[in-house]
Amino acid sequence: MVVAEAAACGVPTVGFAYGVLNEFAGGGIAVEPGNIDVLASNIRELVDDPERRAAMGLRARELAEMRYSVESMVKGIQDVYAKIAYRER
């Protein structure tokens, strides 16, 4: 949930490429698991580049709104019910 919450707040994330971090490509940086030097380097780059950090934060927010807005959540639930109803016929 941390990545989704950070994205919703417009904060870019840097972390190892697991799970939800990959879903926010463009709004964060996903690093090969275990590569600590690259992770640290990417963190430093974002700290030193406020314009890039702000742009990535805006993109993260856009992605979070698309994925977790009330409208998209309702559509997702409707899709699940539609698949279940279709299968039972």
Explained architecture:
The structure is a single chain. By secondary structure, the protein is mainly alpha-helical. The chain has one domain. Helices cover 65% and strands 9% of the residues. It is built from four helices and two strands, in the order H-E-E-H-H-H. It has helices at 2-8, 36-48, 50-68, 70-88, and strands at 13-16, 28-31. Helix 1 (2-8) packs across helix 3 (50-68) and helix 3 packs parallel to helix 4 (70-88). The model has no long low-confidence stretch (mean pLDDT 88).
Spell out the key features of this protein.
89 residues, mainly alpha, 9% strand, elongated
- Summed up, the domain count is 1
Annotation field: number of helices: 4
Overall radius of gyration:
16 Å
User: CA-to-CA gap between the ends?
Assistant: 36 Å
**Secondary-structure content class:** mainly alpha
Low-confidence stretches: none
Q: Could you give the order of strands across the largest sheet?
A: 1-2
Give the strand tally. 2
Order of helix and strand elements from N to C terminus = HEEHHH
Oligomeric state of the chains?
A: single chain
General shape: elongated
Largest sheet: 2 strands, parallel
Instruction: Note the beta-strand portion.
Output: 5-15%
* Mean pLDDT rating: 88
Secondary-structure topology with pairs:
Elements: H1 2-8, E1 13-16, E2 28-31, H2 36-48, H3 50-68, H4 70-88
Parallel strand pairs: 1-2
Explain briefly what this protein structure is.
With 89 residues, the chain is mainly α.
